[in-house]
């Protein structure tokens, strides 16, 4: 049976652990007292050894030479035999593997969230571009309709002007023809009248 903790800590210890948050850790690093914390851990291992325990303390830290990788140290007072060295080395590498995997799994939700935000922003930008394109097409269609209406109106005006001019010409031609016919009729009537007068004069002579 694998037990992470033999018994629950006392209330005072729980209160102390709660106070050891990330803010406390940042203050320790800022004051450059991390080395004292490691020394306190070494002393604690020695104290446990002195009262009859056989502790093994694993301390992991990020590898400065490779990203997303951890290296581990072991603090113990076990007698360094070839067997213990071999087993402790395997345990150290297994601990490094656990740290690397657990850290990468913890970072995956953050990376997925960032990818999701980037995808959402990309979709929003694409939708904005599509709406701008539709608006531009609508404006172009409206402009084309206005141009067609203007062209149709101008064409209608031209047709009406041409029709009016042709109608006026026809009216003038009809008036001229009628005037000419009236003049010819009048001239013919006068000619006939003159001819009758001349015939009468001949008869008298």
Our count of helices gives 4
Order of helices and strands: HHHEEH
The average pLDDT is 78
Helical percentage: over 70%
Cα separation of the termini? 171 Å
Quaternary state reads single chain
Give the overall form.
rod-shaped
CA-atom Rg in angstroms: 57 Å
**Strand order in the largest sheet:** 1-2
Question: Explain this structure to me?
Answer:
By secondary structure, the chain is mainly alpha-helical. It has a domain at 54-128. 77% of the residues lie in helices and 7% in strands. The chain contains 4 helices and 2 strands; from the N terminus they run αααββα. It has helices spanning 11-19, 22-30, 34-50, 82-204; strands at residues 56-62, 70-76. A two-stranded antiparallel sheet has the order 1-2. Strand 1 (56-62) and strand 2 form a beta hairpin. The longest helix is centred in the C-terminal third of the chain and has 123 residues, at 82-204. The protein is rod-shaped. 0% of the residues are buried. The mean pLDDT is 78.
In short:
With 205 residues, the chain is mainly alpha-helical. Helix content is 77%, strand content 7%.
Keywords:
about 75% helix; 4 helices; rod-shaped; 2 strands; mainly alpha; single chain; two-stranded antiparallel sheet; about 200 residues
Write the layout of secondary structure elements.
Blueprint: H1 11-19, H2 22-30, H3 34-50, E1 56-62, E2 70-76, H4 82-204
Antiparallel strand pairs: 1-2
């Amino acid at each position: 049976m694998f037990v992470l903790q033999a018994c629950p800590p006392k209330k005072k210890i729980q209160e102390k652990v709660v106070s050891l948050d990330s803010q406390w850790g940042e203050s320790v690093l800022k004051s450059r007292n991390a080395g004292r914390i490691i020394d306190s851990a070494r002393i604690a291992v020695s104290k446990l050894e002195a009262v009859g325990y056989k502790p093994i303390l694993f301390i992991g830290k990020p590898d400065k030479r490779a990203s997303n990788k951890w290296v581990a140290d072991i603090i113990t007072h076990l007698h360094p035999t070839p067997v213990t060295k071999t087993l402790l080395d395997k345990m150290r590498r297994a601990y490094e593997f656990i740290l690397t995997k657990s850290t990468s799994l913890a970072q995956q939700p953050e990376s997925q969230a960032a990818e999701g935000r980037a995808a959402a922003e990309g979709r929003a930008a694409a939708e904005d571009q599509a709406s701008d394109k539709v608006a531009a097409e609508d404006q172009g269609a409206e402009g084309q309709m206005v141009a067609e209406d203007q062209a149709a109106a101008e064409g209608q005006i031209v047709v009406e002007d041409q029709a009016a001019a042709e109608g006026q010409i026809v009216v003038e031609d009809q008036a001229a023809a009628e005037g000419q016919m009236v003049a010819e009729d009048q001239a013919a009537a006068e000619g006939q009248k003159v001819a009758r007068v001349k015939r009468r004069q001949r008869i008298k002579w």
